[in-house]
Amino acid sequence: MLLTATEKRFSAILVLQNKQKKHHQGSFLYEVYDKAIDLALNPQRQVNDFFTRNLFRDAKRTLKRQNEAIPSFVDLSPDNSIYTEESMAIDSYTALDALIYHDFQASINRLCPTIHPLAEQVLRGLIDDLSCNDLAKTLGVSESLVKKIRVNLRKSICKIIMN
């Protein structure tokens, strides 16, 4: 008895789901199987004798291409963020990581003006590992003001992280 295209499609999805269960969520192979399942659900995709193998191969290629397009260094500076390429290095970068970083960045960008008008420059100096004295000279303010802003930034960032 030959299977219909719909039966082959659902059989492939079951095989892929069973293989996906053997991997940890967030791992590359887990994501490959997840993408392959998405591809299998596309009703326009041609079903043949090598359907499952082709789904896995295509999903793997797609994810590799997407991962190659993502830089190993996060550069969020085009949208006037406080981060630079040198400030954050990431070994593996997923869509969830991007969402978390953009959300964190937006939270900090909203936070800085509420602390002090110089908070963004002080945070940039903190990231660049400048001493309070050097940063105070650069900004033309007292060292005690820079220390006060740093303390407030640390407390506020800790609150963001803990929420």
Explain what this protein looks like in three dimensions.
65% of the residues lie in helices and 0% in strands. It is mainly α and 163 residues long. It is built from seven helices and no strands. Helix 2 crosses helix 3.
What descriptive keywords fit this protein?
about 160 residues, mainly alpha
The SSE order reads HHHHHHH
Q: Mean pLDDT, nearest integer? A: 80
Number of strands: 0
Helix content: 55-70%
Q: How widely separated are the two ends?
A: 57 Å
**Unreliable runs:** 72-78, 82-88
The 3D shape can be described as rod-shaped
* Rg (C-alpha, Å): 24 Å
Strand content: under 5%
Structural class based on helices, strands and sheet pairing: mainly alpha
Number of helices: 7
Largest sheet: none
Brief account:
The chain is mainly α and 163 residues long.
SSE layout and pairings?
Layout: H1 5-20, H2 28-40, H3 51-69, H4 95-115, H5 119-127, H6 132-139, H7 143-162
Helix pairs in contact: 1-2, 2-3, 4-7, 5-7, 6-7
